[in-house]
Every structure is written in C-alpha cells, then in structure tokens.
Amino acid sequence: MRLNFSRNMILTVFMLGTFAIGMTEYVVTGLLTQFAADLNVDVATTGLLLSVYAISVAIFGPLLRMITIKFSPKPLLLALMGVFIISNVIAATAPNFEVLLLSRLLSAAMHAPFFGLCMSLAVYISAPEKRTGAIAAVQGGLTIAVMIGVPFGSFLGGALDWRLVFWLIAILGVLTFIGLSFVTPNAKPTEAPQLKKELVGVFKNKNVLMVMAVIVFGFSGVFTAYTFKEPMLREFAGFEVIGVTAGLFFFGLGGVVGNLASGKIQPLRLTEWLMASLGMFAVVLALFTFLLPFAPMAFVMCFLFGAGTFGVVPILNSKIIIGASEAPFLSGTIAASVFNLANAIGATLGTTLLNAGLTYTMITFVAAGMIMFGMFLTVVTHSVEDKSLFQDTGDAGPS
Q: What is the Cα gyration radius of the chain?
C-alpha cells in the first residue's frame, strides 16, 4: 500500500534530519573546554573540530554527490543518514582527539549531499512562490538545532559527559532514518543527469559565481568569530555553564527568527535584503565583545549574532539554487559545500589569529571587516546579475 504524505510532513522529516546534522556540526562550539580537558589538547586545537568538518563538507560533499548523481533521492538519503548514525557512534566512543576528528570527517562527507537533496526536493514539491520558504524550512532544522540542540548539548556535556551528546545525536539519526523511509517522495528525474553539462553551466553562471564569492570572502567572517563564541562568553561576560548555555540558546533563538524572516522574502528581492542584512550584521560583530560584559546585552548580542548568521544563509542558498537553473541536480550540494568552505576558512583563520596572539576583540573586528567586504560584493552582484531568473523560477527537479 502506497501512502501519500503532505508537503508539511515531508518538510518536517527533512527538518529533523537537518536538526540532527546541525547539532553535530555546531554542538562542538559549546564543548571546546570539555574536549580540551578530557582529551588533553589545547582549546585552540579543538577549533579544528569545526574547521576540519567544514573542509570535509566542502571537498568530499561534492565528490560524493557527483559519484551518486544517478542514484534516486530516497535510497541515497537513507544511505547518507546511515553514514551519519555510524559517525556519531564513533564520536561517542572516541578514545582520543584523532578518532574524534575522524568521526567528524565521516559525518561531514554526507552533510552537503543530504542538505542538497533535501533542499532540492523541498523546492520540487513546492509552488514557485513558496520555494524560498521551502529552502528556509529545511534550513530551519539547523537553526532550531543551534537554538535548542547546541545549548542543551553544551549543558549536557558540561554537567555530565560530552559523549552523551553524540549518543543523543545518533538516536536522532535513527528517528530520521525511519521518517525518511516512510515520507520521502520517490521523485524521478525527467531526464538523465548530465554531470559535465551541469558543472560547466554552474561555473559559467555569473549569478552563482558572485554569490559564491560573497559566501567565501564575506560570510566566512562569521566563523572567524563564531568558533570561539563559548570562550568569549566565559572571558567577557564571566559566564559558567548555565550562562554559556543561555547565551547559546539566545544565539539559536535569533537564528530561528532570522531564518523565518528571510524565508518570507520574494525571490526578486533577495539581493536587496542581502545587502541590508550584511551591513547590519557587520555592526553587530564589531560591537560584540564590547557589550558582552553587560549581562542583559550579552544575551541581546548573542540573539543578534544568531539572527545575522541564519537570516543570511537562506537568502544565499536561495540565490544559488534558484539562480543555477542549469544545474538542478548539483545546485543544492554546491550551496551547502560552498558554505562549509567558508566555515572552514573562517574557523581556520580564527584559530590562526588566536594562536598568533590576537585578542578576541581583534578577531571580531576582522570578522566584521570580512562581512563588510561581502556586502560590497553583494552591491556588485546587484548590478551584474540576471534578475529574470528570479522573476520566473520555472520547474525544479530533485538534486
């Protein structure tokens, strides 16, 4: 017997999956101190758990998607979620820092293809005017993870044991696997994927190339500061476990609000909203450490940091997926991979600057400058992009 599930039900299961993956990616930022103490490494070294994850997503994600491009979406999503479950079991049982890093590589490899498939299927089952919202819904699982999963994981790891966090994520992966097996539509492409044609098309598309430049050279500044948000809260605000957990919660709450707001933007207005969002975000980062010592403002700044981060992400994702009309099977994975390349650049830069002796305040100024450069690139994008692509989004297929 074949069951037909509603669009909302499908998006909910996708969100559960992106929640679990988002928790895996970001929860380590709230556990850096615990990792350092338990695995006998420096806090600066634990930043590699973010940068290595992001590098793996950026490199192995597209390669895995190219290898599996002719696979049907449903069995591929299930296989990817199976890899995710195994990787988190390895993390939960890791005897040393090197094995924990290995588990991050494994889970990161499935990140971009999973997000790409979910976003593209979400577009596929949505009317044109609802496609930005559908992409934001899939991304919403990650932002809710940042709001709830990361603070809870930080609290659980700080109060009990960080290994329990990864066991919890593995359980979420099992629940997602079950949900995907029931609700994922058996979408079949109307024509065979042409990998070479899509790759050439993407790298000739000025719309996509400009957005990729904004992400790599501008949005990467986010992770330059975000990587060390937990130690910043401890140093400037004087927070312990409860305070850090609250700060992470407000960051995630801001992310959810920003994500929901950006999901309501019509495709034709995406670039204008992106310019404004990046400008305001740069101001938030520049002021971040100066306002943390004032307890109420610390939570406000965490909220604004989250709103800026995850308010911008769906806009950029939408501009790639909608703008890359010649690459319906690769666009979603490319978007997720480019974001994680930016994350890797930002996290690595932040670690390098910290090891070089720069203060956290200096690092946030560097981050703000990078975001401002991203705004400049967005202004250039506005003048050269083909806006007709965003007036008529056309038909989309699963990628």
A: 20
pLDDT confidence of residue 393? 45
Helical ranges in the chain per DSSP H:
7-26, 32-39, 43-46, 48-67, 73-92, 97-124, 131-144, 150-159, 162-183, 195-202, 206-214, 221-226, 229-236, 241-262, 270-291, 295-323, 331-355, 360-384, 388-391
Do residues 318 and 132 lie in contact, with contact meaning Cβ atoms separated by under 8 Å? yes
d(CA 29, CA 157): 11
The token pair that represents 51 in the structure block: 């940068």
Q: What domains are defined for the chain?
A: 7-390 (1.20.1250.20)
Distance from C-alpha of 335 to C-alpha of 57, rounded to nearest angstrom: 11
Q: What interhelical angle do 7-26 and 97-124 show, nearest 10?
A: 160
Query: Which pTM does this prediction carry?
Result: 0.75
What is the per-residue pLDDT across 165-198, written as a single tens digit (0 to 9) for each?
999 999 999 999 999 999 888 766 556 566 677 7
Do residues 221 and 368 make contact, with C-beta atoms less than 8 angstroms apart? yes
Compute how many other C-beta atoms are within 10 angstroms of the C-beta atom of residue 293.
12
Distance CA(208)–CA(213), nearest Å, equals 9
Q: Residues 302, 254: contact at Cβ < 8 Å? A: yes
Mean pLDDT (whole number) for 31-52: 79
Identity of the amino acid at 68: T
